[in-house]
């Protein structure tokens, strides 16, 4: 489920080839409420819960949210009450403010999903992660986080980790949070998800275990 067009990143054919039974996108979903200029995380969460509650059999959802995507233009959220205190430029202050409001909204949506899952009898596993840091290039330079607007491909490993690592939440309504994953590639997420669910698969809990141990 992704509240944008199927052609972007060729998602329609890609998801079908990956084995997904259905792809809910802008073309076949009811219009979702906007937050700023993009479909809101709150509306996407409503759709996830509605779809999940309609299913009797076990299911796997992969939801790609849209609201928090850049660019983070000034006044993206006119009703935002957030204040950003910084010695950086006004442009940077406004960009960070817009990003922070989106992050706060995403956090609120995750909280809603966790409260919803906590009321379910069936075990429900939530995985929440980002694919890259937000594109806040000028803010990174002005605050000294990076020396250029784009992450270097030749920086020391510790710097590259800092510039690419994103948070990960892996949580079950029956067992709570999984805290032993450490720093991993998203490629290994299926291994941890199936392991948490108590499932076995020749590739995902077989080959990936061997690859992970060797990495």
From TrEMBL:
Location(s), subcellular: Cell membrane
Keywords: Cell membrane, Membrane, Transmembrane, Transmembrane helix
Top-rank lineage group of the source organism: Bacteria
Topological type in the membrane: Multi-pass membrane protein
InterPro entries: Alkaline_phosphatase_core_sf, OpgB/LTA_synthase_biosynth, Sulfatase_N
GO cellular component: plasma membrane
Stored Pfam families: Sulfatase (PF00884)
Keyword match Transmembrane helix: yes
Domain Sulfatase N-terminal: 1-198
Major localisation: membrane
Keyword Metal-binding listed: no
PANTHER family in alphabetical order: LIPOTEICHOIC ACID SYNTHASE, PHOSPHOGLYCEROL TRANSFERASE I
Protein name: Cation tolerance protein CutA
